[in-house]
Amino acid sequence: MVDQKKVGVLGCTGSVGQRFILLLSQHPYFKLHAVGASSRSAGKKYKDATRWKQSQQLPEEVKDMIVQECKAAAFAECDVVFSGLDADVAGEIEAEFIKNDLVVFSNAKNYRRDPVTPLMVPLVNTNHFDIIPHQRNVKGLNKGFLVTNANCSTTGLVVPLKALQDKFGPLDAVMVTTLQAISGGGYPGVPSMDILDNVVPFIGGEEEKIEWETGKILGAVNADATAFTHVEQTKVSAQCTRVAVMDGHTACVSVKFGGAKPTVEEVKAAMREYSCESQALGCPSAPKMAIKVFEEEDRPQPRLDRDLEGGYAVSVGRVREDPVFDIKFVALSHNTVIGAAGSSILNAEVAVVKGLL
Ligand SMILES: NC(=O)c1ccc[n+]([C@@H]2O[C@H](COP(=O)([O-])OP(=O)(O)OC[C@H]3O[C@@H](n4cnc5c(N)ncnc54)[C@H](OP(=O)(O)O)[C@@H]3O)[C@@H](O)[C@H]2O)c1
């Protein structure tokens, strides 16, 4: 049994914020206590401030909550603050929350490269929490700390890569082409006249994020838990496209192994058998299977498979030999669940079980 923690959501009206609202409704560890957004929304009831775009109903208990300005004082009673803030404002706002000794789990890119801040995917590297005592020392914090989660496309990629790295050692090279959903750009996102009947072969900053973040996430915490050791061996090349899919990012991936090339069946087995700490700790949102491996030749597909395990699992299919690299496959992940809000929530569940909260 866990005493329910009071939580806040910053950026509560956005694409990620709405997913937080849904995932936190009826959560066994967390109870929504405060919601925040811009001055355009502050002072309004949540139901009037947000344009609700989810297929599930807006939970009753949230409808009349008053949206706050994103100031630490309004969230002082929160044990945890989840941030789905726009990156243009997240840096300054999250810094003020941390300065006030609050715990922040952020989806924004601003502090992912910070040398004492974990960049955490809950199906991969929750051991990076080990750096938190050092982070608190460096930032002069007593109970507060900051954890970021990865770019949504990076998240869907690193889970199968971690399964392969654990089983076969560090990879030499990864080539990935993504087909990303429009909800990944927030609301209203790409204009309909740009995305219908079309593929947009550019998402600003996305390829650089995938190419850099992978090395930090797949890396380790050093022996005295004061720094992250990135995986330098694995070179990543990414091409990102936006496609007319509502939710669910697809990634077509080719990998070259550092050691001997495993067979297709060995690769599938490594992914099927893969398990991670958030599962072992019994966290309520952890999927039973971190990776579902399909045998059907036309799966995974976003509309059919993105909600597998509530959107917390990664689906992999079409595992086969690659004539240029070693092995290729297709991965699918829900960009606002395991790719964003769900990632923060599962990371925070791990923090609860580890006694950090
Ligand atoms: N969408 C995804 O799949 C995804 C995945 C991973 C990470 N992310 C990251 O998560 C963050 C949120 O993305 P999103 O897609 O949810 O964006 P979004 O739909 O555009 O929502 C942005 C949120 O930020 C708030 N905001 C904007 N300016 C503000 C200000 N000056 N002060 C306080 N709040 C302000 C907005 O409130 P108002 O409604 O009041 O304007 C809204 O709640 C971004 O950093 C994004 O890169 C997104």
Automatic annotation (TrEMBL):
Residues of the Semialdehyde dehydrogenase NAD-binding domain: 6-132
Its EC number(s): 1.2.1.11
Protein known as: Aspartate-semialdehyde dehydrogenase
Annotated catalysed reactions: L-aspartate 4-semialdehyde + phosphate + NADP(+) = 4-phospho-L-aspartate + NADPH + H(+)
Single GO MF annotation: NAD binding
Biological pathway: Amino-acid biosynthesis; L-threonine biosynthesis; L-threonine from L-aspartate: step 2/5; Amino-acid biosynthesis; L-methionine biosynthesis via de novo pathway; L-homoserine from L-aspartate: step 2/3
Lineage: Eukaryota, Fungi, Dikarya, Ascomycota, Pezizomycotina
SUPFAM superfamilies reported for this sequence: Glyceraldehyde-3-phosphate dehydrogenase-like, C-terminal domain, NAD(P)-binding Rossmann-fold domains
Catalytic residues of the enzyme: C152 (acyl-thioester intermediate), H249 (proton acceptor)
Source domain of life: Eukaryota
One GO term (biological process): threonine biosynthetic process
Known function: Catalyzes the NADPH-dependent formation of L-aspartate 4-semialdehyde (L-ASA) by the reductive dephosphorylation of 4-phospho-L-aspartate. Mediates the second step in the biosynthesis of amino acids that derive from aspartate (the aspartate family of amino acids), including methioinine and threonine, the latter of which is a precursor to isoleucine.
Keywords in alphabetical order: Amino-acid biosynthesis, Methionine biosynthesis, NADP, Oxidoreductase, Threonine biosynthesis
Family the entry assigns: Belongs to the aspartate-semialdehyde dehydrogenase family.
